[in-house]
Design brief:
By secondary structure, the chain is α/β, with parallel strands linked by helices. It is 24% helix and 19% strand. Strands 1, 2, 3, 4, 5 and 8 form a six-stranded parallel beta sheet that branches. Strands 10-17-16-12-13 form a five-stranded mixed beta sheet, with no helix packed on it. Strands 9-11-15-14 form a four-stranded antiparallel beta sheet, with no helix packed on it. The chain is globular, with a radius of gyration of 45 Å.
Length: 426
Amino acid sequence: MKIRHAVALSVVAVLAFAGCDKVKKLNPFAKKATTPAPALATPAPAPKVAAATPPPAPAEPTPAPKPTIDKTAQVVVLCYHRLEGKAGGIYSIEPALFEKHMQELKDKGIAVISMQDFIAWRKGEKNIPPKSALVTIDDGYTCSLQVGAPILKKFGYPATFFVYLDFINKGGKSMSWAQLGELRDQGFEIGSHSVMHQNLNAGKPSKAKFATKDEWLADEIVHSKQLIEEQLGIRVSAFAYPFGNNNPKARELVQQAGYELAFTTYGQRVGHDASPLTIGRYDVTAKGPGGADGYTMAVGFQGPAAASGPVASQEAGAIMVTEPMNGATISDPKPTLRANLAGLGALDPGSVEVRVSGFGLVPANFDPASKVMSYAFQQPLRPGAVTVIVSGKAAGQKVETRWTFKYDPNAKDADGSVPTELPPRK
């Protein structure tokens, strides 16, 4: 018995060292040992993120420095009409002469600027060369497109074409709206020259269908601008008074219509502060008192400087259209003198006097509406130089101008004739 008891104790001892699993098998009711769950890992703290820095505000654009404006610069404005030579009448020049004029501008270092450059200079937005010129061509003849535009493009010159509505789409030598569109597309500017091309200082034309002269003036100035803008899709910046004639009402309407400039036919050197309502132009076909033509006076920067205030009248000595022309030689012993005196201002009709060398005071006629003076010689001229002196009073001030021509009984014009009629429009 003692031996069996000892053996049993030995077996128990061995089992004690045999491991838990065997014990569990031997004693399925033994209580499982509880293994504590491993502690959850503590997440690492999130790295600190710096607060977002707002992007820097875009820098304000640095305004472009304003150009230094040369207020001593001067501009001359050239006025052309037809580029057909004698076929175009007294207001026409040969195409070759027009090209010569453009070349001379280049040779003399006179910069041809656009109308918009001229406006920007006057506003202090852009500078221009000390001696500059504007080229303008009036009325709307096809030669403006067919002759003028190619020559201007050859030299790279801008220009402004002033057209009047009653002459558009009339056929013959008048431009159509489509042709004006061609000028626009070539980069040229189109301006208004009124509707009917009538003297704005005269009474309302009988064919004008308006109750009052003011209504007619509004149509000539305001409506002409609107229609050109509608037809061509452009902005019309400039107006050219027919014959250069203007008055306070016309200038008021020019401003109301939104034009920035209005032009006369009185040759002037235009400065920075010249009145925008009466910018003078040199008619290249006209003659000055000294015999020089308008173009020569313009490129020589001759003539008076434009005034800074509105000017309705024009001083004595201004370039004017005369018959016979200043400096001409004629063969007719009994010519008819004619001169458009609009350049002398608002003349008192009763004050106009005309004197002719060798004849003295002559009984000339003066039409206040058209501003045309005329006198038909009853006695033949003597061969040689003839001087005509015209005087009168404008705004209470005496004004005077003169021109000279030559009578030669053996002389003939190139076509064997002498002009006998002052053209009705220019």
